[in-house]
Amino acid sequence: MKKTSMNGYLAAGLILTGVLVLLIVAGYFWTPYDPNAMSVGPKFAKPSLQYLLGTDNFGRDIFSRVMKGAGTTFAIAVATVVIGAVFGTLLGALTGYFGGLADAVLMRLGDILTAFPSILLAMVIISIMGPGKTVNVVLALGLVFIPSFARVTRTAYAGLRDANYVKSARLMGASSARILWVHILPNIMQVLLPAITIGFNNAVLAEASMSYLGIGVTPPDASMGYMLSEAQGMFGAAPWYALGTGFFMVLLIFGVGLIGESLQRRDGEVD
Amino acid sequence: MLEIRDLHVKFHDRDREAVSGVSLHIEDGEILGLVGESGSGKSVTAMSIAGLLPRRQCDYTGEILLDGKDLLHADRAELRKLHGKEIGVVFQEPMSSMDPLMKIGEQVEEVLLIHTKLTKEERRRMALEAMAAVELADPEAVYDKYPHELSGGMLQRAMIAAAIVIKPRLLLLDEPTTALDVTIQAQILDLLKKLNRESGISMLFISHNLNVVRKLCRRVAVMQRGVLVEEGETETVFHHPQHPYTQRLVAAIPTRCRKEDQP
Ligand SMILES: Nc1ncnc2c1ncn2[C@@H]1O[C@H](COP(=O)(O)OP(=O)(O)OP(=O)(O)O)[C@@H](O)[C@H]1O
Ligand SMILES: [Mg+2]
Questions:
Q1: Which of A149, A168, B46, B255 has the fewest beta carbons under 10 Å from its own?
Q2: B38 lines ligand 1 (CB under 6 A)
Q3: CA distances from A62 to A19, A65, B148 (A)
Q4: Architecture in CATH of B2-86+168-260
Q5: Does the interface predicted TM-score (ipTM) exceed 0.90?
Q6: Whose CA is nearest to atom 5 of ligand 1?
Q7: How many CB atoms within 10 Å of residue B28?
Q8: What is the reported pLDDT for B200?
Q9: Tens-of-pLDDT digits for all 271 residues of chain A?
Q10: Which among B93, B114, B162 is the nearest to A173, CB-wise?
């Protein structure tokens, strides 16, 4: 019974995320109107069949902008998580498996870093690298995400380091790289995958906050965060801008969250 | 073939030595039994032979010679060449001894992948042969199964297959039957006997049960608190235990078993 409901979570999450990804992919090739072109319609048009989410103060079609902006946000979040997960897992694997001084030092460093809000850290990094570039947003967020992935995978690797099957692989003469990659990594997926989904959502939110604060992506690259900050200025005249954009962002987070939840609960079950 | 000389192992976080001054030898084609209560240092002795001591967490002295080559102080690269090829290990819990996400067949072949240049087909053929040798029913089918799909006894057979597929000269068996029920246990013992008879592979058989050791080993060594307290022909030790600890071990075996198995 519980299992079916978990599969239900997974299915719902996959469908929701799938629909959004379709929309995003479609947005790369086609949008109802040019997302950055002004006066494709009247200013502040209400949502209608012609302009699904209405238009903004320049007469731009908001739905087209959401399609594009969601793409930017999605790409930033994926890139951030990839950086965080790849380097975090690498660090976690090495420190968890080998232990020793490097382990102690790196983990304390991670503790210190995670003591600060990640947005604050990312802001500091961006101000060092120079604001206004989407690449820098990704790099800054990616860096900030490394410690949490490192911590999760370190624990998992340390837990399997002395498992009998790892010992016997070692005895058979398997190299450390093979043990870390072939024997342990697949077995920690049940902690890594949920961490990835949580990381993805955090990245979406972090990008939004940063764009909102004006240190995220800059025009003409619309991202959902940037659009939200734009929408705030015209909330009175065009509330549909904020509501429409916010709605799609919530859908994205909710969909990925559902997937993460189902993956996380599944590891409690035997098989 | 294997000679342990005055082995001492002390873990940094323990006051007492886990192994203090053990000397043992195993002849070609022999099965040596190693018995002793929990914590007496049997596994640590085996791990020392297998090169699985956590070297940074302990001090160790002595020599472990495999055909004259010292294993105890050999560096990792040297060990990696020797291990697996010359020495196989089978642990107590079959379930945790296998990678849960790898097919049984792939795990049986793993050592071939690492140590030989055989092709995929050749490796598969050898794995299937080894799986047949350990009397796994329908090796072809078992090859594609995952550990959770096998029973404890089948898994232990698969582990033994993985340990012997490359035809090592020495097999370390750390309580390989303890987690199994009595019938399966007897079957595994028979299997080990057969493997020893047919391929002449030497074995170190660790157990806390003197009666099990008696069924398999001509010679037995008894450990207590890291020290070798008695060593000799199994029947002699069994009928005329010298050390008080061995006497207690023998006394702990139900009389019925003792009589039944008299030669
Ligand atoms: N990695 C380790 N770190 C610290 N102490 C250890 C470690 N491994 C073993 N020991 C200690 O060494 C001693 C001998 O342990 P060992 O595992 O060899 O006993 P054993 O004879 O195999 O017992 P059992 O029958 O329970 O398997 C024990 O006191 C144990 O606590
Ligand atoms: Mg033991």
A1: B255
A2: yes
A3: 18, 5, 53
A4: 3-Layer(aba) Sandwich (3.40)
A5: no
A6: B11
A7: 12
A8: 92
A9: 455 567 888 999 999 999 999 999 999 999 999 988 888 888 888 899 888 999 998 899 999 999 999 999 999 999 999 999 999 999 999 999 998 888 889 888 888 888 888 888 888 888 888 877 888 889 999 999 999 999 999 999 999 998 989 998 988 888 999 999 999 999 999 899 999 999 999 999 998 888 888 888 877 778 898 899 889 888 988 999 999 999 999 999 999 999 998 888 765 444 4
A10: B114
* Contact: B91, A168; criterion CB under 8 Å: yes
B93 and A CB contact within 8 Å: yes
- If you count them, how many residues does chain A have? 271
| Domain ranges across chain B | 2-86+168-260, 97-167
List chain B residues with pLDDT less than 50: 262-263
- How many angstroms separate the CA atoms of B42 and B19, rounded? 8
pLDDT digits over B156-198, tens only?
999 999 999 999 999 999 998 888 888 888 999 999 999 999 9
**What is the pTM for the complete model shown?**
0.84
pLDDT score for B141: 96
Q: What would the two tokens of residue A84 be?
A: 């965080």
Contacts of A174 in chain B (CB under 8 A): 110, 114
Max Cα distance, chain B (Å): 55
Specify which residues B35 forms β-bridges with.
Answer: B207, B222
Partner residue opposite A172 with nearest CB, options B101, B110, B148 = B110
Identify the CATH number of the domain in which residue A210 sits.
1.10.3720.10
The DSSP secondary structure of chain A, one letter per residue, reads -HHHHHHHHHHHHHHHHHHHHHHHHHHHH--SS-TT-TTSS-TTPPP-SSSTT-B-TT--BHHHHHHHHHHHHHHHHHHHHHHHHHHHHHHHHHHHHH-HHHHHHHHHHHHHHHHS-HHHHHHHHHHHH-SS-HHHHHHHHHHHHHHHHHHHHHHHHHHHHT-HHHHHHHHTT--HHHIIIIIIGGGGHHHHHHHHHHHHHHHHHHHHHHHHTT-S--TTS--HHHHHHHHHHTTTT-HHHHHHHHHHHHHHHHHHHHHHHHHHHHTTS--
Check if B48 has its Cβ closer than 6 Å to any atom of ligand 1.
no
Mutate to test the interface with A, among B80, B87, B149 (most CBs of A within 10 A): B80
Total number of domains constituting chain A: 1
Query: Nearest by CB to A173, which of B80, B99, B148?
Result: B80
